[in-house]
Design goal:
Number of strands of chain B: 0
Largest sheet of chain B: none
Shape of chain A: globular
Mean pLDDT of chain B: 98
Radius of gyration of chain B: 17 Å
Number of helices of chain A: 13
Strand content of chain B: under 5%
Low-confidence stretches of chain A: 3-8
Oligomer: heterodimer
Order of helices and strands of chain B: HHHHHHHHHH
Helix content of chain B: 55-70%
Mean pLDDT of chain A: 94
Low-confidence stretches of chain B: none
Strand content of chain A: under 5%
Largest interface: A-B, 47 and 48 residues
Distance between the termini of chain B: 32 Å
CATH topology of chain B: Ferritin
CATH class of chain B: Mainly Alpha
Shape of chain B: globular
Number of domains of chain B: 1
Bound molecules: fe (ii) ion
CATH superfamily of chain B: Ferritin, core subunit, four-helix bundle
Strand order of the largest sheet of chain A: 1-2
Number of helices of chain B: 10
Structural class of chain B: mainly alpha
Number of strands of chain A: 2
Order of helices and strands of chain A: HHHHHHHHHHEEHHH
Chain lengths: 327, 248
């Protein structure tokens, strides 16, 4: 999940208190909610939005890494990157299917993405500027995604939870592969090491922002927590991520670009410097450096592909008509 | 001229086409194709890697797969012209894939009996992959040829644009002839009938005419390419060449 773009649960609902209590009882008993089960309208809407945003993030997320497939510096890396970007497309596909079980079509969701109505993770609105970014994205961005997604494997909505189990396996492979790319660079020539450090400098803070606003500023997470769509707060997940990542950077001999980062013995975790929330909100609101280009690229793919999709439908229709005529 | 150079030609075909089709990744007409095209690209790049590695070993000068892929210029690339043609649109891309796979499938089937164990190994895997490419790309040729007026017109344009690169598939360079004589690689000219049959079956359903080339373009095997290849290689090789000797 890319939680920061999807601010919150939708508590509006028409249901009776008895119905809501019955539903909550199922949730509290850790029962999985399946698509045909009755559910509060707000629960359905929240999930459609969240799963849709997650799916869009996978799809838009193909672009920054896709930007380096044609320039990957070895054939082994080229194949691995192509496979990784393909995996992300696959994640998008499962997630769209999971959202479709709630009564929304992939076309509708795609149109919302292209019109700017639906959000996706704004991490993908930063540019990929060197080969090292292919390592850093795997290491940090897939790493942050995993922190968010592992709890979603226990999400109360069955199809989403099941999609996440498969997705998480692949994301953790991406994370290891990304880390291995960065490690190769960190142990390489001085230019390669500088490339790795520059990449970490650019992606560190945006990666922390992937966890969303501080808990105190996050409006809707209580309802999502009660419905067991969400199980940890933004700050809890961010803390886990930092604590896992700092030693990895140290092992590589790279410096995390935060002079205030230090171990806090009392809490058993790292304290970090102030996140630039102006940048966060600017990027969430659509002013990320690559925001316009990303949507333009998706729109171009969709518009340029219209004739292909129309032809496929027309052919299927003709084939059906010919079959009927032959019977 | 030596057998390893024939393997290099074959590797170049696969890498260049794999690279081309990977250019679509993230920009396909539908999500299913954003998954299918990288799949085909991965098949092709995988085959290229094994062939480069083997060619490098047979050459015996210590050149690795990456040395061969990243440190040769366009005059040294030996791929046929068909595979370097730009993507243009989805019709061109699928037809190019179909033409190539319709050739490579019988090629690998014949190579199952190669005198070279590595080639036999590649053939066993690649023949199945090429059967899938024929099916996938062939179905698109049919859908687009039969679909709408626009798609049919685009498909006809693709045939018009690409058919002049078909004959070169069946040519054998001196190196290829040497490999054929040694029983390492199949005789290219022998595959024409099978190719024609595969194509004519699909074209019949796609309502497409199979034109005879008034003049067939050739030259890839001598390193005489179209201008598009240099740009492809410039992009592909830029990072590798900017850091001589680096490990990735
Ligand atoms: Fe994800
Ligand atoms: Fe993913
Ligand atoms: Fe991933």
């Amino acid at each position: 999940m890319y939680s920061q773009g999807l601010i919150g649960a939708d508590g509006r609902t028409e249901e009776t208190p008895e119905f809501l209590a019955r539903f909550q009882k199922r949730i509290d008993a850790e029962e999985k909610i399946e698509p045909k089960d009755e559910m509060p309208e707000g629960y359905r809407r929240t999930l459609i939005r969240q799963i849709g945003q997650h799916a869009h993030s996978e799809i838009v997320g193909m672009l920054p890494e896709g930007n380096w497939i044609t320039r990957a510096p070895s054939l082994r890396r080229k194949a691995a990157l192509l496979a990784k970007v393909q995996d992300e497309g696959g994640h998008g596909l499962y997630l769209y299917s999971a959202a479709e079980t709630l009564g929304v079509s992939r076309e509708e969701m795609t149109e919302e993405l292209l019109s700017g109505k639906a959000k996706y993770s704004s991490i993908f609105n930063y540019p990929t500027l060197s080969w090292a970014d292919m390592g850093t994205i795997g290491w940090l961005v897939d790493g942050a995604a995993i922190m968010n997604q592992i709890p979603l494997c226990r999400c109360s909505f069955g199809p989403y939870a099941r999609a996440m189990i498969r997705v998480c396996k692949e994301e953790s492979f991406h994370q290891r592969q990304g880390y291995e790319i960065v490690m190769t660079l960190a142990q390489g020539t001085p230019e390669q090491k500088a490339m790795a450090q520059d990449s970490l400098n650019r992606w560190w803070w945006p990666s922390l922002m992937m966890f969303g606003p501080h808990d105190a500023d996050s409006q809707h997470s209580d309802q999502s927590m009660a419905w067991k769509i969400k199980r940890f707060t933004n700050d809890e997940l961010r803390q886990k991520f930092i604590d896992a990542t700092v030693p990895q950077a140290e092992y590589l001999g790279l410096t995390i670009p935060d002079p205030d980062l230090k171990w806090n013995e009392d809490k058993g975790g790292y304290d970090h410097g102030t996140i630039d929330w102006d940048e966060f909100w600017r990027v969430v609101k659509g002013h990320g450096p690559m925001a316009k280009d990303r949507i333009k690229a998706r729109k171009k793919a969709w518009d340029d592909g219209a004739w292909v999709r129309e032809a496929a439908l027309a052919h299927a229709e003709k084939r059906r008509a010919r079959k009927i005529a032959a019977e | 001229m030596a057998v390893w150079e024939a393997l290099l030609e074959l590797a170049d075909d696969h890498l260049v086409l794999g690279h081309r089709i990977s250019e679509w990744c993230g920009h396909a007409p539908m999500l299913e194709e954003d998954l299918a095209m990288p799949n085909m690209g991965l098949d092709l790049i995988g085959t290229a890697r094994t062939l480069y590695d083997h060619a490098g070993k047979l050459e015996g000068k210590g050149r690795s797969e990456d040395d061969l892929a990243y440190l040769r210029d366009e005059r040294e690339y030996r791929n046929c012209l068909l595979v370097e043609r730009p993507n243009e649109d989805f019709a061109h891309t699928m037809l190019r894939q179909f033409y190539f796979a319709a050739f490579m499938r019988p090629y690998w089937l014949a190579a199952l009996n190669s005198a070279d164990a590595t080639v036999r190994g590649v053939a066993g895997k690649a023949e199945k992959e090429m059967a899938y490419h024929i099916r996938h790309a062939g179905e698109w040729v049919i859908r687009l040829g039969d679909g709408t007026e626009e798609s049919a017109a685009r498909m006809r344009d693709a045939v018009e644009a690409l058919h002049i690169y078909v004959d070169e598939l069946f040519d054998s360079s001196d190196a290829a002839r040497m490999a054929e004589a040694a029983g390492v690689l199949p005789v290219r000219a022998d595959l024409r009938d099978t190719w024609e049959r595969t194509v004519s079956e699909v074209f019949a359903e796609a309502l497409l005419e199979q034109p005879k080339a008034a003049y067939a373009q050739r030259g890839g095997r001598e390193g005489i390419h179209n201008e598009a290849l240099g740009h492809l290689l410039a992009e592909m090789q830029v990072v590798h060449r900017a850091h001589p000797g680096a490990r990735w």
